[in-house]
Each structure stands twice: as structure tokens, then as C-alpha cells.
Amino acid sequence: MATDGMVLLEGITKIYDLGDVQVEALRDVSFSVAEGEFLSIMGASGSGKSTLMNILGCLDTPTRGRYYLEGFDVSGLSRDELADIRKHKIGFVFQGFNLLPRMTALENVQLPMLYNGVPPSLREGKAMEALEMVGLGKRAHHQPQQLSGGQQQRVAIARALVNDASIILADEPTGNLDSRTGRDIMGLFTELNEKLGRTIIQVTHEAEMAAYGKRTITFRDGIILKDERAGGS
Amino acid sequence: MISLWETTRISSRALAVNKMRSALTMLGIIIGVMAVIMMFAIGAGANREISDRFSSMGSNLLTVRPGAVQAPGGVRSGSVNTLTVDDARAIAEECAAVAYAAPVYGGSAQVVYGNQNWSTNITGTTPDYLFVQDWTMESGTVFTDQDVRSATKVCIVGKTIVDNLFGGENPLGKTVRVRNVPMVVVGVLGEIGTNLMGRDQDDIVLVPVTTAQRRLFSSSRSGSVSTIMVKAQSSELLGAAQDQVASLLAMRHRIREGGEEDFTVRNMAQMIENAKAATRTMTLLLTAVAGVSLLVGGIGIMNIMLVSVTERTREIGIRMALGAKTIDIRLQFLVEALMLSLLGGATGIILGVAGALSISRGFGWAVEVSPFSISLAFGFSAFVGVFFGYYPAWKASLLNPIEALRYE
User: Is B87 helix (H, G, I), strand (E, B) or coil?
Assistant: First the structure.
């Protein structure tokens, strides 16, 4: 069993059965991600990158192949077992922020801890810490609709940080933001990656945003087209 | 799985966000529970009142009416008038278990005094009637057996008559006219109250039975009476009295062994039982209506929960992505439905008790709120919450997180 690296994919294939036709979204994809990497996944729509993201985020399972997360095979787990993996090891950042309305930023950030067993007395402190880390300590008691898009995305990032996840998965994190705010968010990711050593995997179709990553994998038609590291290494 | 306490917090927040909707959803349960509580309270109160009156009246009364029993409870009466004043006298004298017996013959008539008139119940009977009914005199005297023999034109009046006809004047010695017959008031009855059916028993004029038969309500069959009221020596002897009265009358009426009797002897207990059975049927019917209301309330909860699950698909997706398990989501929505129904149930109980009490104040009905009906109503609303909340909760918990996150 391969245990090197944070993420190890071996021959991942995902087939969607649409009744008459079978769509092969991923074909025999293999790669690994080491701890502390900042990886960008690029590709046009329909290239299979969203499917890969769902599998990496333990929201879906591959049809064939093995996915080892921190050396632990998660490819054949049940629905509830996957939920257990998500609550401890995955931090999600979505394109549409996906914060719960009518809850303050602080409460939104506490949400993962509701499910992963952190004692209630510790939650608020940890959530506040995470919000300060993303520079939103002063906005802790604002509700999402009182915050700008960039601020909402920072709250979402704080939420992804708070459970000390093994990997942060960001699905088009700048898709709903203007480019300046997008760059701010990328700056924040870079900081989290470089200063705190967090492993980050982002999906994007913008080359400018992908360039913030230290490694870029480009997908086309369900297979890896390119796998390049910044600085030509 | 997260704790029930935290689930309750999440659910109560969700309900608080849509206060109006939550209140309207609860309305069905509130009305249903309120109706159940009130029906039970009124039904139990009526039963209690019947029992109370029964024991206060004494459980040793028998009524003898002309006509045979057709079916249990049903009496063919009016077709024959076979009972006589002599039958009543014979019952009192010859039946060992009988303390008193009094014939009753009368009808409704207008009583006129000066320029006042009042329509009331004229009861022709014998002096023993007061002993049978345990009535007392407030003033004056009871007419005598001699009055009965000679059909004297005298009467005893009840409290209601005094109030309505004499307006505070002392009625003793005054002459009233009944069907144009002048009658002298010789006595006033003590206050009695209302009877089982709620009729004012003080609205009565007692006259000698012969006076009623010959002068007021003369019939072709002279000497017959409509009822004989019998009081047994004690309630233990009621059964014996019933048997003795029946065999004495059969002998007097020359009815052969096994032949059809031309009279019916009934005891008060049977009449009470009939009244109670009627109340029970009514309560059951109204409770069934209340139950339907609870059912409709439950369907309302299910409806709103289904809408809520659809509206909050994205929230469900987010919670799942953050690690909520199937059971966490299912409990969240189940607790929400349960809170709606229990809160509605509690409100319904409070309103139902308040309603029952105000009915008791407003209409003077006896009501009795029992812990049983409260726990029944509460238990039923809990059941409704779980039963109708489960399907929406189940649906929510099985959503695919990827699709739920994409839901707009």
C-alpha cells in the first residue's frame, strides 16, 4: 500500500450511467499530492475536473481505482463513512461561498465543529481564531448578506480551516469575485500554504488564478493533459 | 451523531426564522388538541353531574308507567292507561320493600293570578309524593288525603311560580285560576333546583290527583294515572321493590304467568345509565371530529416540512459537505416537525383548558379536565409529529450532497 503523500490516486475512473449512454468522466487518472502542496487543477468544462473534485472531497466515490487520503483507502466507503472523513479531513471552499443565511460569520465558521465532535465550549474560540486568520475578526457578528463577496469567501475559508483539515478543496473560489478580490483570495491561499503549510487543491479555469499554485494539472476529456510545476521543476 | 440538545437548538432556530409559517402550521394541531380537551372536559363533566344528581336524588326510586317494554329501553306507552290511584295505594301498602308510592297525573296549563299568568306543569298526586321526591315545604301545609278523596280545589306551588306569578307577595291563601278553576294556594315548596335534563323543577304546581283527573284534565278513562313514583325502603332493597311492584301489579291486572305486562317498572339507575350512554355517544362523536382535525393538522405539518426541505436543499447540501451524517439531517427535520406538533399540542392544551373553564363559567355546564385527556392529547400530537414528520425528514436525509449543493 502506498502511503507517501497526502493524496494518492491510482487509476481513478468515473462512469456516469445515464440510462442509454454511459459517460466516462474520468479515465484511469493517477497522481499524488504531497503534504503542503498548493495544486491548481485546470480544464474546460466537461474535462472531468468537477468530478475529480467531488471524489477528492469524498462527496462521491470512483467507479474504479483507489483513492488514498493520508494513506487510508477511502474509495469504497459508505455514505456515512464518507461524512466522517469529510468532517475531519476536508475543508471545502465553494464558488458560491455556501454560507448559511441568517447565521453570523462566527456561527457559520462553527458549523463543521458541530458535526466533528469539538466540545461546544471550545468552538467559539477556535472559530474566532480562524476568522482572525483570514482578517475578518471584526466582522464576526455580521451575517453573510451584510458582507461583500470577498468577505463571504474569507468566512468560507475560515470555515474550511477550523477543523484542521488535511486538505483544503477550493472549487472555483474566485469564480464569483472580481479579479482584484480574486487576487486577494489567492494571496490568502498562498499565505495559508506558505506560512501554515496547509495543503490546498483548487479547481479553476482562469490561468491567472491557477498561476498562484505551485503546480498545475490540466485535464481534458477525463485524462491528465499536463502536470507542470512552477519554476520549471 | 450530534447531540439531541444541539439538534433541538438548530431546529428551534429554523422555526423561529419563519414565525408566521410555524404558527400557521401549528394551528391545525392547536385546534385539534383544543377540541379534544374541551370535548373530554365537557363529556366527563356531564357524566359527573349525572352521577352527582343520581346520588343526591337517592338511588332508590322506581317509576311505573303504563305500556309494555318493547325492546331494551324502549317503552310503548300512551296507548293504554291502565295504572290507577288504587294501584299506587296498593303498592305502598302491600309491597314490603316499598316506603312510599305516589301516582302522577297532570299536564301543562296556564296559571292565572290577578293580571299575571304563567304556563307551568300541573302535577296531580298524593301527599306522599313529597316523601318520594324528598321535597320539603317552605311554608304552609301539604294538602291532605281527605283533599285527595274529595278532589278539593287546593294547590302547592314551587319557587318559580312564586317568583313569576306573585312577585314577592305571600301566595298562601291566595286564589289562582287553572283552566278557569279557582284553586287556593295552601303551601309553598322549598327550592329544588334543576333535574337531570336541566329542567327547572321549581316550575311546578302540585294538586290532589283527583282534582287533576276530574276538574283539570278530565279524560275518558277516569281514575287512570300516567306514572306511579315508588320509593324503596333503601337502595339495597331497590331490586326487591322492583320485583314486588311488578308481581303485585301483574296480579292486580290479572296478567297470567308469561303473559305480556301492561306496565313497565324502571329504576333510576337504568335511566341514569341511558343518560350517560347518550352523553358518551355524543362525546365519542365530537372526539372523532377533533381527531379528524388533528389528522388534518398533521398533514399540514407534513406539507410544510416538505416545502421546507425543498427550500433548504442547499443548506442540507452544505451541512452534508461539512460532515453531517444521514441521521443528523434526519433528526434535524424530525425534531423540527416534533417541535411544531408538541408546541401546537401544548398551546392547544392551554387553550382547551381555558375554553372548557369559560364554557363552565358562561353556560354553567359542569366540566372536568382530566390528566388523562391532557396526556392523551399531548401523546397524540407527539405521535402526529413523528408520523407526519418522518417522511420529509427521511427525504431530506437521503439527498445527494453534490446535487443539493448545486441546487438553486
Answer: helix
